[in-house]
Amino acid sequence: MSLYWIEDDVTAWAPAKHMKEEDTPEGKMHTLVKLDGKKKVISDKLLKDLETVEQLELDNILPNLIDLESFSEGIILHQCGERYKREKIYTFVGTILVAVNPFKRLDIYNEEVIAHYKAAAKTSETPEPHVFSISSAALENLVNDQLSQSVLISGESGAGKTETTKKILEYLAAVAGKDTRRTSSVNVADQILRSNPVLESFGNAKTGRNKNSSRFGKWMELNFTTGGKIKGCRIVNYLLEKSRLCFQLKNERNYHVFYMMITDEEAKSKYKLADASMYNYLNQSGCEVVDGRDDNEEYIDMMQAFNDLEFSAEHQDNIFRTLAGILNLGNVSFAENESKEDTMKVDNMSYLQTACDFLGIPADEVGTALCFKRMETRDGVIQIPLDNTKCKDQRDALGKEIYFQMFNSLVRKVNDTIFKGEGDPGKHGDPLTCGVLDIYGFELFEINSFEQLCINWCNEKLQYFFNSVIFQGEMAMYESEGVDCAKIVFADNLPCLDLIEKKTTGLMSMLDEELVVPNGSDEKYCQKCHNAHKDHKYYADDRKNKNDFIISHFAGPVVYRTDNFMEKNKDQLAPVLCEALEASKNQFISDIFGFAKAEATAPGGGSPSKGGAKKLTVSKKFKNNLDQLMTSLDATAPHFIRCVKSNSKQKPLEFESPLCLRQLKYAGLFEAIRIRKSGYAYRFSLEHFVRKYYLCCAAGQGLDEKAYAEAIMKEMQNKSNGEITADDWAVGTTKMFIKSRKPRMALEDIRNQALSTHVIKIQSFFRMGICKMRVWADKWAAMRKAKEELAKKRVEAEKKRAEMDKRKAAKEARLAEENKRKEEERLRLEKIKEEEMAKKRDELKAITVVQGVCRLYHAKRIAKKMKMIKLLSSAMTQRDSNLLEVAIKQATTSQNGQRSLATADRKIKNLSERARAVLGELYEEQDLKGEILLAIESHDLPELERVLEIAAARNMMNAPEALHAKSMLEELQKSWGAKERLEMLTFMGNINAVLENADELKAAIDNARDFNVSVDDIAKAERYYDKVKKLIPIRNKMRVAVEIASRKMILECVDERKEFCKFHGDDFCKEEATAMVNMLRMFSYERQLRGGEQIKAPPLSAEAEGGVAEDHGFDDCRLPTWAFAQFKTISEADDDKAKEYEILKIEKRLDGDFDKMNEVRRVFKWVVNFATWRHPDHEAQIEKKYGGGAENDNLVTGNSKHRSTLKKTAPPADKKGKQTKEELKSGSSQRDRSKLKSSVPKQRLNTKKKSSGYGAGATKTKAHAKTPKSDQKLKEMMKEYSAFYDTHRIPLDWCP
Fold first, then answer.
1. Was 161 annotated as part of a binding site?
2. Is residue 157 annotated as involved in ligand binding?
3. Do the Cβ atoms of 327 and 273 come closer than 8 Å?
4. What is the pLDDT of residues 147-169, one digit of tens each?
5. I want to staple 1237 with a disulfide (CB 3.0 to 4.6 A). Which of 182, 329, 821, 1254 is the partner?
6. Which of 445, 444, 438 is nearest to 462 (CA)?
7. Residue 904, C-beta contacts closer than 8 angstroms, at least 6 positions apart
8. For the segment 771-818, what is each residue's pLDDT rounded down to a tens digit?
9. Is 159 labeled as ligand-binding?
């Protein structure tokens, strides 16, 4: 009796028996009972639509489901589940291998299994379903047919695709591996296997469904020789999941490699890495460790794989530097820019600087690119500020692009190693290859975006290829059976493919077009799709959301949300960031982005670039990859493996039927069944068909199986009342074909009627037999009674015989017992005699032992004394307190009532006393070490000095405790010194004194941090420095005004100083104020000198000619700005050639006029020598160039001392001649921030360290610094300057 498949919540499909049929007002209703006893009532119409199954099919678990009589979801799921429970995870459905993930290690992949399948491939034996059977079939077909092969592996995350790929490669490497390299100890087959640890580390991650999920697809094309040996391999990768780098869901992880490198202490130190919890790209999901996975062991394996694949140490270093840069980039955050409203800035510049250092790109340029969008307009380039969210998006886009390009370069490097040229020519002249495709399965999530559309597009493409192959296989089977298949129609999924990829009207083409139209957007794109495809069979719009559309795929309908479709399809980084990466100082980064730039351009697709080519969009790139893949697959003989995830909990050997059924649907397995049903859905072997239906036709006796089966079908066709026609069945060479379910059910009805007829006949014969048995019942009773009496007599005879045997056995037992007693008595007497003899021997032996013990006692006593003397001497030599205590205790303690050794022996007594003295010294040393440790713990400076003096007196300075204490004493002294220096600089009580020593205070604060001075002291000093820091600019401005002899600027500074004096007193910058007053006096005296009233700023050259004025720096200054800057550059030049070059520039500007040259030079010298702040002299270079210029200079001799002093006090420069950081802290002007030095201030601190730059330099020029305060000295200066001015007056018509 047939069973029916009905839907079930737990098992998806369950077999049920038909129990009864009832007539109801709603019509005929049928009651079905499942095997677990649950009932279900359905209508007559629904019953006819149910698939049937025989109990024999349920009980018979087949390795290849193609041998089933019927194909339905229920029977396929049942067969796979039953095999899985028996740890048979592989099942064939025709040539398709279904692999169900067991989530445990099975011992079915060892060398013996490989050898078994290798041998089976050479014979006609049909092996058990196994991944090795697919591998061996592909290899055998490649060798025998000389045709390329391919293995297509698909399934959802966690189904075991990656492990299946590994097993295929392991088999091929074991059977077809060949050492093709002389320079390496690793052959190419092993290198192909070693590529897995590298690609998995960078391309795999933990997801919610899988602990080691591949987040990219790959096509591994192995090249073969004609003899079936591996020659090399080429890998092509598809659609790396870039978004995982920046975002992971709960309990998921980023790519494995980040966590692996952090577990290695050497790498962690080298690349300045912290724990995973410190990085934004790693700590989002709360999952840092994966159960059952040791990241450190995986890191070691990956590094070994790098070496096996010939990655150089420099290449590996570049990869890890790039990873470290990406992690630091992810920590970059943004904040509002207070100086510019409505703009953002990088909040933590240190992370960005570290990332850019690793990547070799400028941090300031990258920071600007992250916060602003550059747009080119007709008026030029403008910067559009971005908000915080878009800044983070820009940051993440940069990180994703760097990781993506690095992963592509990794695949290229692996290919460089394992690709050894194309395979040998095959049957059609093409290279022999065996491709393995590990690709993502059909995806359906709650929210599906552009990535899911691409993945499902790929699966739709592969399903079309799969359907074509299956259909061709069906046609080949019909031809081999001799069945006419002309009427069979194959309905494929080509319309769905056209909907996605067709030119112009396809969804992807429309998306590319939307990128180039003005004001294109995701919403407009979605609306255009609705308008263009509203009548398409496989397309529908989602009424719940206007930005969604629905595609009916082969596995079911999927709703896609078009948000960010355009941005994801464009996938372009900001041009300024691309340019920075292409020009990176890191050659590795520069190379991979240079390669990406060359690869991104193609003859068609995308938006135009500078070179005229067009940048390909993601969809266009993916379509090109798919077309190349399909071209490769079309040239091969395909083999299919469908991986299935057995349960969502990842528990061993647990089978969730609904989950597995969904995956089988997504894998396209039931599409293959649909193709089969489009022809003849039911197939029986002729032997099975005749054995099952011979009851329906008695006229076929003596015929062969084919003729008999044909006769049965004709007979049943006549009895079917038209339900079976000639087109509904066909007889092949070995099989019977039934077209659909209706004729199949008609066959069952006719068979059931025949069975009913035969059952009635059998029942009638059975009833006749019962009647005959009743008639013969009495005869049988008499015969039974006679047999019972005979059996009773036989039993009594047996009892008598058993009694006689029992008596005889008892007699024999009594005789045996008597003999045994006598033998035991004899043995007892012999034993007594032997014991007496042994007693005498023991007495003699005891006497001998007593004598030996006495001799031994005396010997041991002497040995014990010698041992004690040796122990005491050794303990004193080693100065071991524990050993001394033990030795003294043993020497002075009495044992067993005997005197102690020290009491009994004088020598031992003397040694014991000496040992006590040594022990006392050791105790004192230990006490001193304890005091040292206590002083270290308490950080007590006086105590440390005291205990170290004692340790030095006792020669214990080499002890570890003393060395530690000495080191700590030095640190504490430095810390106290730094603290004392802070106190001296901050407790002056005078803000001017603190201002004068601002540089030294800043250095003291930095020094205090280095020596761990308390935070409160540092904070107090910083508050003093913060007060002074605001006053430094006005001080510097006063110095610059005096320096350049600007009357206008001096007057401004005088006014500004008055405001500051209100808050800080009249002593505020008194030295600078005095210098300004003196300079103003200079100007006043200058007016009073002969011809002084005619002095004025020379006219501008362009004004005299009526043209546009050129500003040469003349305002109210006696010295042009350009001249001052030029001479200052000369004075600071490092070598003679540079100075000569600068002098030549001045000469050129003055048209070679030596007089003008002298005039400008002398004014410069006056400003330098008679201002309070000085510059190094440049006179030597002027004399070298022009000669004799110093004879008329009255100031040369008198100022030579100042020049030498300035050279000595000039601040130090670093190795490159640049100003050091300390020089730039409080510089005086924009022209020179480092070398404008102050004269001696009124107060100068007497600290242990050197004072500030100008204070140190003023020591030798103290008398000169006080000169401006003396009226007498001022008169002498005026007289000297008057002589100079009369001789070298600047003409009124002069200009440079």
1. yes
2. yes
3. yes
4. 999 999 988 878 888 899 999 99
5. 1254
6. 438
7. none
8. 888 888 878 888 888 888 888 888 888 888 888 888 888 888 888 888
9. yes
